[in-house]
Amino acid sequence: MNETMVCAVGNVATQPVYRETASGPSARFRLAVTSRYWDREKGAWTDGHTNFFTVWANRQLAANAAASLSVGEPVVVQGRLKVRTELREGQQGWVSADIDAVAIGHDLARGTSAFKRTGRPEQAVAPDRSEPDWATRPGEAPEGTASVPQRRPEPAVLT
């Protein structure tokens, strides 16, 4: 699969819109990514061009993004880049850039955030499947077996 994976750092530009669809929860919001550069003439940082992306999130990521993100917050988005060119009113050239998000998080270089794990749906109580205690004490045979001295296997020799 040849997909273009991107990591975009920017600000939430629109409030996330959450929808329950037939294929599961979905959320979208616009992300503003502005480049900054050092202007030698001014002796200061200057904002460059701003790119806008529509970020799409699905399933649990959609629910968590809708509950966690607000306009203006700095975020980091990782996902698949989808660029589309469409005709609008007879003119070609309308281009949209979407990111099908795999991960979204607050940019901790610019502030703090408190993580809160979401609860899982209730499931039926599963039987205890913990690992049995296979360890035996030195000189003790496992239950139901005779005490046989154990030998280390000889290393295999490949020819």
Automatic annotation (TrEMBL):
Q: Name one GO molecular function term.
A: single-stranded DNA binding
Q: What's any GO biological process attached to this entry?
A: DNA replication
Q: Does the keyword Protein transport apply?
A: no
Record-linked InterPro entries: NA-bd_OB-fold, Primosome_PriB/ssb, ssDNA-bd
Q: Known PROSITE patterns for this protein?
A: SSB
Q: Which UniProt keywords apply?
A: DNA-binding
Keyword flag Transport: no
Give the start-end ranges of region Disordered.
113-159
Query: SUPFAM superfamilies, alphabetically?
Result: Nucleic acid-binding proteins
Subunit structure comment from the entry: Homotetramer.
- Per its UniProt record, what HAMAP family does this chain match? SSB
This chain's protein is named Single-stranded DNA-binding protein
- Organism in which the protein naturally occurs: Streptomyces griseomycini
